[in-house]
Amino acid sequence: SQAPQPPKEEAPRPPKGASIRVDDNENSNSNQAPARPLGGSGGFFLRVDGELRQYELSHLLYVEGMKDYMRFHFDDGTPTVTTHLTMHAVEDMLPSGDFIRVHRSYIVAIKKIRSIDRNDCITIGKEIIHVTETYKEKLKEIVKF
Fold first, then answer.
1. Close Cβ partners of 63 (under 8 Å, ≥ 6 residues apart)
2. Is residue 8 helix, strand or coil?
3. Structure pTM?
């Protein structure tokens, strides 16, 4: 007679209908995937190639919205990850002290902002993102410009 085995822990399951595509130059994969915050350890999970993969918040430059899809852009060579999420869901997932919405289609990492020019354009990574009137005051409060 064998000793009973403890039940196996299962990874969190994505909501039905969530999907992900990883853009790796010309290769892309479609899978089921949610964005899942990682409690207090500086990362989050996305389902890629049928498994949950962890991405570090410290390498996230900005998130770009495209209707119901979000593109996560990183500064460490990680391929851009496109997920089926809303902007509101991403805002709720990211720590508000580290990320700020600057446009209806962009959330940026505050510490990754290289410059803000007189036309209210942010340089982050190799991108220039325009700060719209709706989000300008909040950005001014945070960066004191």
1. 70, 71, 72, 73, 90, 94, 99, 106, 107, 108
2. coil
3. 0.70
